[in-house]
Design brief:
heterodimer, A: mainly beta, B: mainly beta, 7-stranded mixed β-sheet, 4-stranded antiparallel β-sheet, 11 strands
């Protein structure tokens, strides 16, 4: 069964600094990978998705992620953090296009002024 | 993407009672799912809501506790039955409009059991 592991339950960065949120996947077949963001008291919003096209995926709000098969990783990055990026971030995996998402435990991002 | 409306957005309930959560989508979707997010935790899949047939439940979730209906391609309900404080969670409806597309989420129902 597929799964994802998010390293670090809490990441804190200074405003303007690089954001790096880690996600490693476990899957016996090429997976569909996703990053979602959850702001306080809201549902989940899709940031970006990897579906076996380009390995570098650009998403909304300046975020991007790179699929590295050799490292089984799909880390999320943003060159310069904004205060508005403070939220909970979830990495998720799907075995195929018709199976439900399985989520990692999430990483809470704090941005310090 | 589809617009997903969940009702109620939040509720406070007495233990032993039941609550039905509604999920309405503004367009027909192929797949609908229900997730639970316990306080400070990640999302756990409860079940896949199947149109016109019984839902497919994940390990640890049973129909008697979480009955689900999906009468058509735009609507589903999740009932949390005989509630206890351990059921205090956010319950989220999620849809996939077509195969091979991402899942989208409603804003969730925040449920507290006293």
């Amino acid at each position: 069964a597929q799964s994802v592991t998010q390293l670090g339950s809490h990441v804190s960065v200074s405003e303007g600094a690089l954001v790096l949120l880690r996600c490693n996947y476990s899957s016996s077949v090429p997976p569909y990978l996703f990053w979602y963001v959850q702001y306080p008291n809201q549902g989940l919003q899709l940031l970006l998705k990897y579906t076996s096209a380009a390995t570098l995926v650009k998403g909304i709000n300046g975020f991007e992620a790179e699929f590295k098969k050799s490292e089984t990783s799909f880390h999320l990055t943003k060159p310069s953090a904004h205060m508005s990026d403070a939220a909970e971030y979830f990495c998720a995996v799907s075995h195929s296009g018709n199976t439900p998402l399985v989520f990692g435990k999430g990483t809470r991002l704090s941005v310090i002024a | 993407s589809a617009v997903i409306s969940q009702k109620p957005s939040r509720d406070i309930c007495q233990r032993g009672t039941s609550l039905t959560i509604q999920c309405q989508v503004d367009s027909q979707v192929t797949m609908m799912f229900w997730y639970r997010q316990q306080p400070g935790q990640s999302l756990t899949l409860i079940a896949t809501a199947n149109q016109g047939s019984e839902a497919t439940y994940e390990s640890g979730f049973v129909i008697d506790k979480f009955p689900i209906s999906r009468p058509n391609l735009t609507f589903s309900t999740l009932t949390v039955s005989n509630m206890s404080p351990e059921d205090s969670s956010i319950y989220l409806c999620s849809v996939r409009t077509v195969l091979n597309q991402p899942q989208h989420f409603g804003d969730g129902t925040r449920l507290s059991i006293l």
